[in-house]
Amino acid sequence: MSTSRTGMDDVDPAVRAELTRLRDSIDNIDAAVVHMLAERFKATQQVGHLKAAHRLPPADPEREARQIARLRALAEDAKLDPAFAEKFLNFIIAEVIRHHERIAEDNGTGRTAGAG
């Protein structure tokens, strides 16, 4: 976030204070999201190692479909655009699969994403 106040000098101090309060809240939420994603990826890395050890495919299309449906429903309940939530989860899933493929390759058990 830029600290420049271009265009903010003539803003009412109460408005500026409220804007600062809201932005501080957004910054806290962003930090929580990053930490939650880090925890999620720690867990998915463990899944990747388990899959590689047992020669399971990196991708699980059935689970992915269930997760997308589940996240869309959660998004609707939270008044968040379900299409956005699905795009977000698809981005995460693609990254997880990429990690799982790399783990499988590193373990000499490489399998393609479409295998399963």
What keywords describe this structure?
116 residues; mainly alpha; 72% helix
Summarize the SSE layout with pairings:
Elements lengths: L12 H41 L7 H17 L4 H25 L10
Helix pairs in contact: 1-3, 2-3
Averaged pLDDT = 91
**Which shape, going by the Cα principal axes?**
elongated
The beta-strand count equals 0
What percent of residues are in strands?
under 5%
Helix fraction, binned, reads over 70%
Low-pLDDT residue intervals, each spanning 5 or more residues: 112-116
Distance between the termini: 43 Å
CA-based gyration radius: 20 Å
Tally of contiguous helical segments? 3
Task: Give a verbal description of the structure.
72% of the residues lie in helices and 0% in strands. It is mostly helical. The chain contains three helices and no strands. α2 (61-77) packs antiparallel against α3 (82-106). It has helices at 13-53, 61-77, 82-106. Mean pLDDT is 91; it is low at 112-116.
Question: What's this model, at a glance?
Answer:
The protein has helices at residues 13-53, 61-77, 82-106.
